[in-house]
Amino acid sequence: MELQTELVKKLKGFCDLKSYDVNESFKPHVTVFSSENAKIFSEVWKYLKSKEPVSMRQHLVRVSILKENRVLVECDLMQREVFSHDKAVSKTLMNRSMNILMVKLGKRETGY
């Protein structure tokens, strides 16, 4: 997977990577559960199961790397850069990322 390989290359300098971090059979996922919110998750899951499925297109723009609930860095997938948390909150950088995404989606002719 190109994204995983690219992230591993950029993060290996300051992260303690495990064997599963570089495993080619890795399947991307999002964790929405923790022991702290088990009851809330259960209620939300029950509600979601009662609804009709919704189809939508989503585009991943950034990946946040956390340590002890703090953002260490953010990997901007549109700009192919790794930013410190302080830099990542810049509206200018986020606007640039969104412009690149709009170009990729064909909703704008030029970006940046």
Task: Name the descriptors.
112 residues; alpha+beta; 2 domains; three-stranded antiparallel sheet; 4 helices; 3 strands; globular
Main beta-sheet annotation: 3 strands, antiparallel
Number of domains: 2
Major sheet: arrangement of strands: 1-2-3
Number of helices: 4
Overall mean confidence score, pLDDT? 80
Relative strand content: 15-25%
Poorly predicted ranges (pLDDT <50, ≥5 residues)?
A: none
Number of separate strands: 3
Look at the helices and sheets and give the structural class.
Answer: alpha+beta
Helix content: 25-40%
Rg computed from alpha carbons, rounded to a whole number of angstroms: 17 Å
- Determine the N-to-C terminus distance: 26 Å
How do the helices and strands follow one another from N- to C-terminus?
A: HHEEEHH
Shape: globular
